[in-house]
Amino acid sequence: MTDQQVEENSDMVLFSEKERKAIIDSGEYPGSIYSHVFYNPSEGVFGIKLITDNREWVKFNAKGEILGTLASEENPHHTSWKMVEKELESNYFTKKPSALYIRYFAKQTYNWSRLNPFAGIGSTTGGVELNWLWIGEAFMELKLAKENIIFKTGCKLSESHGYQTVVSSYRVPKEYTQGKEVVFLYQNKYNGNEENAGWYIIIEK
Questions:
Q1: Which of 79, 148, 156, 191 has the fewest CB atoms lying closer than 10 Å?
Q2: What is the span of the domain harbouring residue 159?
Q3: Do 46 and 76 have their domain in common?
Q4: Model's pTM, two decimal places?
């Protein structure tokens, strides 16, 4: 739908500044949930915030048709919006078949610095980057009701965390899509993923 980067927002964006302050001051706020996409049930449209100079909210329908930008008074914390939650809260995946998994990992760049016995000494991160073995591309399989699809994305392989990708998936509730199976995929530009970066919509035929 777009090759622009998309901003991730917490559920706190759904409240006005006054409401956010009251929630935080109450001490009962359980912590933020983050998402790239929100839904307005009264209008039947989705909204994402593009990382551009103007940080504009863009609205679109379940067919992937861009309907324009949101005026300031239409933004999520001014109207009745809902968060579309991620299918998975982690960007770490395995090769074990699931709703979204890595079918094949193509190694491209080895992390030679991890072989340096002095690397990481004095680092404020404790040498966390030494944990990575390879940077490459993951060919991921997304399971759908009628057919599965395979796509590629940037990926790192580490000893302790396994495969870390730069993809977020959202399996949209069917009450938002008139019963159609719709999945949103977002890929950012980390790990040299510029070629694949963008916001994608997969729609049941």
A1: 148
A2: 92-203
A3: yes
A4: 0.84
